[in-house]
Amino acid sequence: MNTAAFHKISYGLYVISSRKGDKFNGQIANTVFQVTSEPPTIGVSINKQNLTHDYIQDSGKFTVSVTSKSTPMPFIGLFGFKGGRDVDKFADVNYKIGETGVPVLLDNIIAYIEAEVINSLDCSSHRIFIGKVVNCDVLDNNEEPMTYAYYHEVKRGKAPKTAPTYLKEEPKPTAEKSANYVCSVCGYVYNPEKGDPENGIKPGTKFEDLPDDWTCPVCGADKSQFEKEG
Ligand code: FE
After folding, report:
1. CA 82 to ligand 1 center in whole angstroms
2. Which pLDDT value is given to residue 170?
3. What pLDDT is recorded for position 175?
4. Whole-Å CA distances, 62 to 49, 84, 181
5. Could you tell me if 49 and 186 are in contact, meaning their C-beta atoms sit under 8 angstroms apart?
6. 3-state secondary structure of 204
7. How far, in Å, CA of 78 to CA of 218, rounded?
8. Exposed, middle or buried: residue 154 (CB in 10 Å: 0-12, 13-18, 19+)?
9. Of the chain's two ends, which shows fewer C-beta atoms within 10 Å, N or C?
10. How many Å lie between the centroid of ligand 1 and the Cα of residue 210?
11. pTM (2 decimals)?
């Protein structure tokens, strides 16, 4: 079995949000699909370990926020690699409460879909939720949606272990300059030539010379979580 075949399937990159009582949570998912057009229904596959899974089961509601191609990695890191049990992901982002009472993100989002769960399918590690669409809209017609392939190839993103598409044998990036360091949590690559200017690290700063309190700009992991690339 050549699991590289799975990489030939196209996906997007979405933030799935839900609520439990007055708490919100959201996570990145790539497996969102329209099931029927009349009535409009959509499906999404969510890992049972994720807090969003519990929230969707509790409220029976979820929203899909479609990310744009220009979405910065820290935004993907916040929703894709941080746990809602540890951080309030909605504390510092713009969102609105949709018709279902579930938050719809507004930053880096080109469209959204709100749904109410009408069915679900237990798939061992994951559950597929089928939702009746109760509202949806386009927020930006000029930006293109982020695709999973673009996220991997251009943004150099990685799949968290709880993603449906995570492959244990996910190929490592081809060997490059040995001085690059890779975040073992999210796959962010620290390139000393580029530095991390957004966080005050000048281009040309070696990984070894980064301050001890520097953390991964995507997922917040500390320096000890980084491994030399190659
Ligand atoms: Fe990271």
Report:
1. 10
2. 52
3. 43
4. 17, 15, 37
5. no
6. coil
7. 7
8. exposed
9. N
10. 15
11. 0.80
* 130 alpha carbon – ligand 1 mean position (Å): 31
Q: Which residue has the higher pLDDT, 227 or 177?
A: 227
Region for 95 from its dihedrals, namely left if φ exceeds 0, alpha if ψ lies in -120 to 50, beta otherwise = beta
CA–centroid distance, residue 183 to ligand 1 (Å) = 5
State the residue for tokens 């962010």.
188
Token pair 């949000």: residue: 17
CA 57 to centroid of ligand 1, rounded, Å? 29
227 pLDDT higher than 50: yes
Counting every residue, how long is the chain? 230
Q: Which one has a higher pLDDT value, 225 or 62?
A: 62
**Distance (Å) from CA 224 to ligand 1 centroid:** 11
CA distance 211 to 190: 13
Whether residue 143 is predicted with pLDDT greater than 60 in this model: the reply is: yes
In Å, what is the CA distance from 119 to each residue of 31, 35, 51, 55?
A: 16, 12, 19, 15
Q: What is the pLDDT of residues 152-188, one digit of tens each?
A: 777 667 788 888 877 665 555 544 455 899 988 788 8
